[in-house]
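Sanity check. The docking grid for glutathione depends on where the pocket ends up, so I'm generating a full predicted complex first rather than guessing from homology. Inputs follow.
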Amino acid sequence: MLDSITTSAGSVENFPISKRWPAVNPNILQLYSMPTPNGQKVSIMLEEIGLDYEAHKIPLNDEGVSSPEFLSLNPNNKIPAIVDPDGPGGQAFGLFESGAILTYLAEKSGKFQGTTEAERWEVQQWLMFQMAGLGPMCGQLGYFITFAGKDIEDKRPRDRYLNEVKRLLDVVERRLADRDWLAGSYSIADMAVAPWLNCIEQFYHAGDMVGLRDRKNLSAYMDRFNARPAVMRGENIPAHDW
Ligand SMILES: N[C@@H](CCC(=O)N[C@@H](CS)C(=O)NCC(=O)O)C(=O)O
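Predicted complex below; grid placement will be based on this.
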C-alpha cells in the first residue's frame, strides 16, 4: 500500500496517483475519471467554466479505481477525483465525491452556484437530491435491469428501484413545471441530475420502462441540457467506447 491519503501537498507530482497517471502539464487541474454519469458531471462543469485540465482515464477495476495509486487519492475506489495544483492556500489539493468537486469548482470559478444566498442553498438542495436520491437509485436500477441483476428471478428488488426511480422522476417533472432549470439559472444541480436522465435513456435503454419522455417538462429539460456546447464536449471526457 502507498502512504495514506494525501489531500494537500506542494505540487501535483507529490500525489502518488501521478506516479501511475503522470501529468503532462502539472500546472493544470488533473481529472481522474470515466464518462459515466458521475464522471460526466465534472468534465461538463470543467468545460462550462473553461478551466484548463488534463483528463486521465481510470478503468473501473483492480488496475484502475482499486489500484493503490488511485486509492491514495480516493479510499472509496470510485471516480471522479481531481488534483488541483492551485488549491486552497495555493497548494495542490486532492478531492473526491462528485458533489464536493462540483461545489469546489463552483466556488473556485464563482459560476453555476446561484447568484443570491437563497439560490445557492437551493442549488445545494437539488445537488443533494441527486447525490443521495436519484443517482444511487438509478445506479441500483441499472444493476437490476441492465447488468448482472437482470437475471434474478425474484423481481421484487428490481421493482423496488424501478418504482423509486419513477417517483424521483415525477419529483423532477413537477419541479420543472414553471422553470427551465432546477434551481435559479443553470447550475451544478443540473450538471448532476441531467447526466443520470441521459444514462437511463442512452446507457440502460430504459427510457420506455420508466416513461422518461412521457414527462414533458423533463423531456424538454433533457433536450435543453444536451444542446449546450459544453455538455456535448464534456460528456465523453475522457474518451471511451462503452
Ligand atoms: N458518490 C460517488 C459515486 C461515484 C461512483 O459511483 N463512481 C462509479 C462510476 S459511476 C465507480 O467509480 N465505480 C467503480 C467501483 O465501484 O468499483 C460520487 O458521486 O462521486
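Relevant for the grid: The domain at 117-232 is CATH 1.20.1050.10 (Glutathione S-transferase Yfyf (Class Pi); Chain A, domain 2).
Also worth noting: The CA atoms of residues 210 and 237 lie 27 Å apart.
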